[in-house]
Amino acid sequence: MDNNPQHRIGTCPFKVIRVICVLVLLILAVQTQYVFGQPVPADPVPPQPVPVDTIPKKPDPVLPGQTDSLRNRFAIPDSTQRGQIRIDSTRARNQPKEFILKFPIYPLNAPKAMQSTVIQTDSTLRWNQWFEYSELLSRSNGVISHRLGGFNRNDFHLIDGRLPLNQSIYIEGMLSYDPVTGNNKSAFIPLERISEITQSGTGLNLRTNVNLQKYYTRKPLTRVSYEQTAFELRNTDGHVSQMVNQQTGFDVVFQGKNNEGEYPRTQTFSRQLSGRVFRHLNEKYVAQAMVVYNGAEQQESDGYSITDLVAFNFSRFFASPVRSDANSRIRSTQFQVSLLRRGGSRESIAKSDSLGSSDSLMTERGDSTVTKPSLFAESRLVFYYDRYRRNYASFQDSSQYRWQSLHLSGVHQLNTKWIQAQVEINGRYYLTDNDYSYTLDYGNWAVFDGGLAANFTPMRGVSVPVDIRSSNRSDGYSGFESTAGIELHPIRAIKLFGSISSGSTMPTMQSLYWIGSLRGNRELKSAPFSRVSVGFEVGNRDKGLSAGLKGYQTKFDRFTIVQFDSSFTQLSNIGQIGGDASILLNTHNWEIGLSSTAHLYTNELDGSGGGNALTDETVRIWNRASIHWKGYVLKRAAFIKTGFYGILSPMAYHTPEYIPVADVWNMAGNTDPIPGFFRLDYDLSARIRNLMVLVRWENVADGLGQFGYYETAPYPMPSRRLRFGLRVIFSN
């Protein structure tokens, strides 16, 4: 068998997918007047107004459906996303009956999770270069990263002390997760299509919801993004979308990433192809069908034979990989059908004026009404099929498993004056391919989980969030979490908050039933935990000066690790203490941020046999600083954002150990401590109408006191490099 990923990447299915995608993009780009043989009426969606100036005095939407982040850190979608599809009232009577709207069309987004926080929008993402979500997280406050130096890797992120096992990612309501290893598939998040990324969860478990853009445009909208840097690291993204008629729209997306690798055995190739169709059934209901394919093939080094991490010169010619013949391959396919329901009856929607607009709509009845319903769904029902496989092969070791699953998920919200509540129920059934999965010694299994989240507001300035969740697996394991908190606003600019949670986490299927060079342990039990967190915030983070401070303490009664004999076991009384402090200045022309994140493991383990992340008593500290200027230049011909981002980690500390054959992180693996490090990046992004130019000079300070740096031992991070990217929009 040919183990060279570069040889296999050009064969099926990638070659066929590339050809099909190119043909689809070409066909859709040409179809500006006719779709499926039917002419598109001229009036349902009016053309975008042409600005008088190259860059108007007020921010114009670079991408349809989003305002710009010139003044607001998180911009609100503009009228192309929140407004209705209009018909001029003086011309509607002359339209053919089939072209007259039977009901107004309003975008409808997924239900917002309780106590959720918006961390990224299209308006903020467009001004930065991100190969993938892991890179974005590494710059976020409260995060300590352990990355492997490339992309599409299973990177490890501590988010406010939460381990990856306690983090979940949902993309358009679909769980992006491997139930065997417990790893999130964050590399599958399509950052070029993001509408909004939110995080929710005040306890130990953190949920990330990813919502994708919908474009309501009469003519085809084409987005093309390209980025390249040293060592043939390329990222290409193409996106075509269009409204077929007043009620139905679709989009097709293809993304390809290639990396020849700076260091030996870091070559990676990945592809993502997706298609989506959505239809407004009436004022209240929107149906959606979606298919997503992800594939990746990469070389595996198993780390590098570096005798002294401090003395290493970070030269690719002196980096000797532990394994010179290891490769891994990932394939994932998801098919989804979902239904969104807007709150309120049809009559209340027709008479609502919640956004205060006086836009006039003409319905089939010919009456003029003012309609401004909620843009977020009250209920959602999602059914999807998920298939995933991973294999690892080297001369000394190998592993492979494959599963497919059926998922059914329902969410409903209830909002009253005193209480807001959300109920969620999920059912999942996994089928293991026993002929293929020789490293997973278990057949089929089912998981049922549900949750109730509520927020009580007994008086003005006081809210009490409560969250109860439970999960049960058919092999007899169960887990739960109950969280209660309080949020106080003594005055408008100050927020005080705190929460306490307790529960238990189920062991992963891998830790129980894995066979091979690592061995599962069927005697493992669900792991109880408790967590307390407190903090406060002052000011508005979107405007002016703001500051925040938060801290947490977590205790695990059982903590799963891989011990010296390569079997899974559990340790008792493992604790965590940490926190984050930040200050931010956000004005019309400046964005300045300072933050410091600290994390410490506390336990009574004996570290005399060798150092690891759990026995290391060093406080892990990541200090971040950024300063960016933004404004118009060249007589308002362009808008730019430019500045520096830096990070300083002054202390040497042990990191978790990554085991590629099982795709798992071991907190008790014996590793050498990585030295303290610093990093400095220069960012420049410029917008000229519908064209974005992005430049990032990474690791500017390499060679000034350090040759390079690590986030995980022994995986050196990329050296100084210049990244260049383009984003362009074609609206016809």
Descriptive overview:
The chain has 732 residues and is mostly beta strands. The chain has one domain: TonB-dependent receptor, beta-barrel domain (Maltoporin, Chain A, Beta Barrel). The chain is 6% helix and 48% strand. It has 7 helices and 41 strands. It has a 22-stranded antiparallel β-barrel. The radius of gyration is 26 Å and the shape is globular. The N terminus is likely disordered.
Element layout with pairings:
Elements: H1 5-9, H2 14-30, E1 34-35, E2 38-39, H3 79-82, E3 117-121, H4 122-125, H5 133-138, E4 143-146, E5 156-159, E6 167-171, E7 174-175, E8 177-178, E9 183-184, E10 194-200, E11 206-212, E12 221-229, E13 233-243, E14 248-259, E15 268-280, E16 285-300, E17 326-342, H6 346-351, E18 361-362, E19 368-369, E20 377-393, E21 398-415, E22 419-432, E23 445-459, E24 462-473, E25 478-488, E26 494-505, H7 509-513, E27 527-540, E28 543-556, E29 559-562, E30 568-571, E31 574-586, E32 590-602, E33 620-633, E34 638-649, E35 657-659, E36 664-666, E37 677-688, E38 691-698, E39 710-712, E40 715-716, E41 721-730
Parallel strand pairs: 6-11
Antiparallel strand pairs: 1-2, 3-10, 4-5, 6-7, 8-9, 10-11, 12-13, 12-41, 13-14, 14-15, 15-16, 16-17, 17-20, 18-19, 20-21, 21-22, 22-23, 23-24, 24-25, 25-26, 26-27, 27-28, 28-31, 29-30, 31-32, 32-33, 33-34, 34-37, 35-36, 37-38, 38-41, 39-40
